[in-house]
Design brief:
The chain is of the alpha+beta class and about 350 residues long. It is built from twelve helices and twelve strands. InterPro entries: DUF559 (IPR007569), Restrct_endonuc-II-like (IPR011335).
Amino acid sequence: MITQELNRLGFNHEDIRFARKCCLLRLSRGVYVAKHVCAVETHRPLWAGIEDSTFEAYPEYGDMRDEVTKLDAAVMARCEQQFQRRQSGSGDGTEPSDGETASSSSGTEVISHISAAIIHGLPLASPVTHQVEVVRPGINRRFANLHVRGTPIPKHHQGTIRGMRVTTLERTLVDVARAYSLEVSVAMIDDALHRHLTTPEKILTVLGQAVEKRNTKKVRRALELADGRRESPAESIAAVRFYEHGIHGMSPQVSFVIDEAGTQIRVDFCHRQARLIVEIDGLGKLYLGSGVPREELERERRREQWLRDRGWQVIRISWKELFSEAKFEEIKLAIMRSETAAAASAR
């Protein structure tokens, strides 16, 4: 919600300042979100929607997901803020944010990059920015919570979602791959391919049409590494780490038939020659399925034991370990040992 909406609900400047100490979170200048239901009755208009389940309470995880959630809320608030300006005109009292004037963004702004990815429902592997990102022709400026880029965006690279102009899915993927790390861009491309939202050919076509040519090789590298078989950002990050460490031959989402009834188990990555399985434990993975971590752990243990009994080595990588060297050196060593053993037996 924006300051204008709070004013219409009867909250003045002092009321808003008090609510920020309680149940109201400030995302940027003039942009807020209700965090939870509180005990102050006068704050009911802020969180009534949470109480009657019209919308959910602002989630807090205690990890990096909090930053992603905050950016998501800021992007949605930006869309609402711009919608209000277009509906009532720049002179309606809507509070401009981050030092801009109300007229500076009217009619020209296109949501782009990470912010557009959020609107398209793409996953953000890590909180790489706290700023809402937009494009306005000929303007390059950074405010506290807003990043304005001046790169021209062709009309056919724009669409409308929730009343806001947004870069198309393919253009968004190209822009993110050009501006951010492989772990961020590959996770988004993998997700879009996995859900059959686009194809590599369509992304390459948009890349060729873009005026900007900076980091084109980086975009192509992200496309080369992308694979729609992967099912989570954690798996995508692992694939990027394999590339960075020179590890080849890791096939994603390989299935094994475990009984005569045809029951199957699937593993995240499999290196058949080395008889090596790599499983990635992303954030919250053990809370999927049954919803009970202990049951999920037991199921994972039984799967691993089945594989080990048949001569497979299983290496698990936690979310934290994705960003360190040790596990990937262990994987490289396992593959090297298998290659050495294969060479010796061939003599």
